[in-house]
Amino acid sequence: MKIKKRMVISNVEIFMQIEKKIQEHLRVIVCGSVDDGKSTLIGRLLYDANKIHKDQLKTLQEESKKTNKQNKLDFSLLVDGLYAEREQGITIDVAYRYFSTNKNKIIIADSPGHEQYTRNMATGASTASVGIILVDSQKGILKQTKRHCFILSILGVKNLLLIVNKMDLINYEEKTYNEIKNVFNKFTKSLNFKNITSIPISALDGDNVFKKSMQTRWYKGPTLINYLDNNFEETQTFKTLRLPIQYVIRNKKNLRSYAGTIASGKLSIKQKVKVLPSGFEARINKIFESDKEINQAYKMQAITFTLDDHIDLSRGDFIVDTNNPCDLSDQFRVDLIWMDVNHFLPGRTYIIKMECRTLKAKIFIKYKYDIENFKKNMSKILKLNDIASCDMIFETKIVYENYEVNKTLGSFIVIDPDSNATCGAGRINFALRRS
After folding, report:
1. Strand 256-261 to strand 411-415: parallel, antiparallel, or no bridges (unpaired)?
2. Looking at the domain 242-321, which fold is it?
3. 136 beta partners
4. pTM of the predicted structure, to 2 decimals
5. Average pLDDT over residues 392-407
6. 327-431, CATH topology level
7. 23-229: CATH class
8. Which residues 6+ apart lie within 8 Å of 68 measured at CB?
9. Residue range 68-120, pLDDT digits in tens
């Protein structure tokens, strides 16, 4: 009689499965200047991937007859959902679309090309692992193209794909494609990208999108969908515990529990943790997901937990690993993207929003980046869409990690204290040490 062996799954394997499930989508952002064909490209991807329902296709055919005279489908209508976008033929807000291939599930974001909507592009880029830069083959590299590349670099996107679009309008000339490719590679050398690839396409006709084009026999690289299929970025597992406190809850029995979403790492019952910024230590007593009691929780899980000791915890505090806690500082060197039509005022006290914390800080410009050549220029003011290196000084020491280590703890938004409008966003590069 054969006895079946009981399969034992370790905590490590369970954690890796959960991490894979959370990170199973490849997040892509499509950027570029105005009228480079971003919405058309995404619409074409959805069409070629057979992700359009029959009623959508019928509507697309009817709407396309109104918008063009070439008797071709206007794929941008699948993405541009706002009335103002369809009316003006532009993208205003970031539009997200979901589709899958044989290998990947993909979330693709269509970002605005207009300078006044750069803030929306930065929002979409903050979660992307692949950045697609679209360039019109007739216009070449423009200032907004360079600005988008720089923002992608600042926000930690490592994989960059140059798409030279509208090749059909230049008769698929290899020379023009190579010229654009060389200019692009030259100015992105100084940026922090790990991989840069380029593809010539016609989004309208589908050349090199899903299938190799017979019009570009001189091109030996992958199609767009081949590139996306082979760029699934595995995320690192077992990062150190970082849990920001969002709420403190008191029940009818006057027992206190704490709610938050785990930013990284895992949390287990009886685990010894440190509370920052106070520095007190305690052990995890119970963990709940909704109303269900669980033994462990992992990255991106929203949980409630209790401690075995009475410690003063409030919104904005952090639960961290006792063996690898975060640093504390009140002065930082940051990269700041200014997103307001009102000019930045050096030395003014702004409201800084970081994860669950609302803080006050003064910001001083060190230098401003020239988007044309990425040189560092001295400046006393920042205008809309300017990017600068700044010193940020808080009223008290805060919990932080550099953006390259932890995006959650290393990013922030800047709020105008008078209008309460978001006027900037940035990343922490490192803390400044007082002598």
Report:
1. unpaired
2. Elongation Factor Tu (Ef-tu); domain 3 (2.40.30)
3. 165
4. 0.80
5. 92
6. Elongation Factor Tu (Ef-tu); domain 3 (2.40.30)
7. alpha beta
8. 74
9. 655 677 767 766 554 344 444 444 457 788 888 777 788 888 877 666 667 77
